[in-house]
Amino acid sequence: MFKHLFKLIWNKKKQNFLLMTEMLVSFMVLFAVFTLMVYYYDNYKKPMGFKYQDVWVINISNAYQTKNTDSLDLYYETLRKIIKALPQVQELSFVSGNTPFSQQINEGGLTYKGKHIEHLNNFTGEDSYKDALQVEVLEGRWFNKQDAVSKYRSVVIDADLKEATFGKGQAVGKLLGNDDDKNKMKVVGVIQTIKRNGDYVKPGPGIYYRADTGSFRWLNKILVRVSPGADAAFEGRLYKTMANYMKNSNIEIEHLTNKLKDTNYFAVIPMIILSIVSCFLIINVALGLFGVLWYNINKRKGEIGLRRAIGATGNSVSSQLVMESMILATLSLIIGSFFAIQFPLLNVFNLQAHIYIIGMLLSIIFVYLLVLVCSLYPGRQAAAIYPAVALHEE
Amino acid sequence: MIRLQNIEKVYRTDTIETLALNSVSLDVAKGEFLSIMGPSGCGKSTLLNIMGLLDVPSKGSIKIADRVTENLNDKQLAQFRNKTLGFIFQSYHLINDLQVLDNVELPLLYRDTTAKERKMLATEALEKVGLANRVKHFPTQLSGGQRQRVAIARAIVGKPDIILADEPTGNLDSAMGNEIMDILINLNRNEGTTIVMVTHDENMAHKTHRLVRLFDGSQVQ
Ligand SMILES: Nc1ncnc2c1ncn2[C@@H]1O[C@H](COP(=O)(O)OP(=O)(O)O)[C@@H](O)[C@H]1O
Ligand SMILES: [Mg+2]
């Protein structure tokens, strides 16, 4: 019977071409949507890597500048003390501009044992960074005073960079860096990757450098952990205190909770648009499919009647029609999968292979279900046709 | 072979009720070649459909090949039609998207057969109707007479006891019609197949063993 249906489909390839194209297009669109969904979900279920609640970002522009490093350090140490003295401030760290959920990036690359790591995020923070953000240390430790005098420059790497370089093995104590040996950096700790791009978008690997004297020249942001009850009144007080001290600077305070919301929003919007578009497309395809199958049944009434006359039951007629659509779907899906599999093979968007594969499987299941649902009812109708009536019409 | 008793068939639509058959009783013996004649709309096709178990009578009883068929379910009916009956229609009812051989194999698909057996039996049937050299053609590439011969091959491929033919020569000129008629006569003679044929053509009817005339749903002769 299978071979028979195959012949029937093959001999009608012209009529079936349109239907197959529709199935193929919906598969490809679904593949895009599901892959994106899986990608988002994949990132969503990973830990945030730090506690963003009650962390505020202070942006300082047009700050105090001087050629003299000592007086610069003194200026900022005083600022630190002033802020820290406020009752609701628990911890703070001067940091590079690429704070979590900000649009700023600072990317570089790194080669380790012939393996090149691209889009590596470079972060700079102080010894207090760990407590300010409450990052999760997975291996080794965060920076401390010892690192100022160590032989190699100390770095902390995140879990993603560790996996890309050292795999499952130990990272602490290993040397990293592109330069000759004396400029190499030594890994002192591994922390959980911070989802700096929000809940849904992959942050990419990151490496952390310790802020030292002189870093104040360019560290223009402060991350402050405040106590849970800190309110707008306190924010006003913080602002005033700082503005008093830094007469000519512009100060802006933001909350990480809000920044996260905005960041997630920007990730989710394209997703929603894509989903709406694909919904319309799927409805279109479903109606088209349904229409074609419906039309088929009316056009093939003679055939249906004949099959009944020569020994087909109503059920076998209806399952034949459903099978035909499923075979068509299978053919389209084989072609579609061939295209889809190129994405992980050619590593088009730098996503992990399993994301594509799951996206592909979900789209395959969806297309099969769609075709099944669209052909079940017409198939039922075909089974209900009286053979005598079907043979009469023509 | 076929026994119809007091068959009545009423078609009901929303507005009208048509009495298509009115108390028809008919016996067809094994090996008989029976023809049915009558004006258009008198119920010939309805009668044939009832004999072929494609339609159920409103009243009356049917016995085919010594079996009472009233209580058969859909599956049993389908099997019964497949094994016992062969159908030939005025408009051939070939599947245009299938080659001649595949068309002929069709009834065997609904039985337990291997592809090899199907091919062998279908080729044999096509030889009987003189179309062994057209197996790879599509129906649309054949003349009307040839198409009807394919339909006959399809009807006989499963070696049924009974063939029901509804105006098999209705769409054909007399030369082609005679060819078809000869095939049916030979089939009846050589294989002993019981044939019931509806026709409009007196000449064809007279070549059969017996003629039954219908008028307005009733048997008149
Ligand atoms: N499915 C049906 N529904 C309603 N009336 C029908 C149906 N089939 C046949 N008839 C009516 O029954 C009568 C007999 O039809 P039919 O057996 O096809 O006649 P014949 O084959 O002798 O030309 C006609 O009046 C026809 O209109
Ligand atoms: Mg008729």
Automatic annotation (TrEMBL), chain A:
It holds the Pfam family FtsX. Its main location: membrane. The chain crosses the membrane at residues 21-41, 265-297, 326-349, 355-377. Keywords: Cell membrane, Membrane, Transmembrane, Transmembrane helix. It is a multi-pass membrane protein. It is found in: Cell membrane. InterPro entries: ABC3_permease_C, MacB_PCD, Macrolide_Exporter_MacB. It comes from the Bacteria. Residues 25-232 form the MacB-like periplasmic core domain. Residues 276-387 form the ABC3 transporter permease C-terminal domain. Belongs to the ABC-4 integral membrane protein family. This is FtsX-like permease family protein. It comes from Mucilaginibacter dorajii. The lineage of its organism: Bacteria, Pseudomonadati, Bacteroidota, Sphingobacteriia, Sphingobacteriales.
UniProtKB/TrEMBL annotation, chain B:
Signal peptide: none annotated. Residues 2-220 form the ABC transporter domain. Keywords: ATP-binding, Nucleotide-binding, Translocase, Transport. It comes from the Bacteria. Transmembrane segments: none annotated. The keyword Nucleotide-binding applies. GO terms for molecular function: ATP binding. Belongs to the ABC transporter superfamily. This is ABC transporter ATP-binding protein. It comes from Mucilaginibacter dorajii.
